[in-house]
Amino acid sequence: MSDYSKLEKCLDYQFKDKDLIIEALTHKSYKKPYNNERLEFLGDAVLNLIVGEFLFSKFPKSNEGELSKIRASLVNETGFTRLANDIKLGDYIYISTAEERNKGRTKASILSDAFEAIMGAIYLESGLEILKPIILDLLEKSYDKINLDVLFSDYKTALQEITQAQFASIPEYKIEGSYGPDHKKEFEVSIWIDGVNYGSANGKSKKLAQQAVAKIAIEKLKAE
Predict the structure, then answer these.
(1) Strand order in the sheet with 172-179
(2) Helix, strand, or coil (residue 171)
């Protein structure tokens, strides 16, 4: 597992300090004097900045609320796990034997944290201008389009994968009502999983309301 050349090729970046990449790939369960939590903290901040700047330039007509929603759909555990899987990051992570048995290499929390840590490590070693094209390239390869509807659809996809695994069923979305004038209508949608209501949310379209309530359901399922 000490050969990182394939990972570096996927990132189009070569680490000068191999200790840094090892730290970024070391989960706290591995019981070393170091782990990737500090680099993860740094990576999270830098990813928020780079993605925020990218969206600011890409969507000049979007307001602050819309930009925040798009960024939230990219900069989260689901989004980072997707990018981590694209570069097969799970193959390289150092985890404990217990985590190995618990399929830790495929856990969203471990993968997304390691992705943030790797990005934090690149930033630490080479700075923002080197890291920025790496992140934007990964985003463009992973997402065919970057817009509000497409990005929000990932919540529905992610939730369906979770419910199929946990309940062997798919979520049911119910339209509870619509409010406001035609030009400014809001829809309320509730979500039901295995006969249980997991919440409701509003949106400017039925699709956006479904995505918003799917996000709520994912958070509740994770909390459980």
Answers:
(1) 172-179, 186-193, 196-203
(2) coil
**Structural domains of the chain ordered from first start:** 5-144 (1.10.1520.10), 149-223 (3.30.160.20)
**Token pair recorded at residue 41:** 């903290």
Catalytic positions, written as ranges: 44, 116
The mean per-residue pLDDT over the stretch 11-39 comes to 94
Higher pLDDT, 18 or 148: 18
How far is residue 142's CA from residue 164's CA, in Å, rounded to a whole number?
23
List pLDDT tens digits, range 102-139. Answer: 888 988 889 999 999 999 999 999 999 999 999 999 98
127, 119 in Cβ contact below 8 A?
A: no
Give whole-number Cα distances, 203 to 61, 68, 184, 187, 188, in Å.
Answer: 19, 15, 10, 5, 7
Can you say which residues are annotated as belonging to the binding site for Mg(2+)? 40, 113, 116
**Got the DSSP string for 89-117?**
GGGT-B--HHHHHTTGGG-HHHHHHHHHH
DSSP of 25-56: TB-GGG--S--SHHHHHHHHHHHHHHHHHHHH
Binding-site residue numbers are 40, 113, 116
DSSP state of 224: -
Give the model's pLDDT for residue 1: 47
CA atoms of 37 and 63, how far apart (whole Å): 33
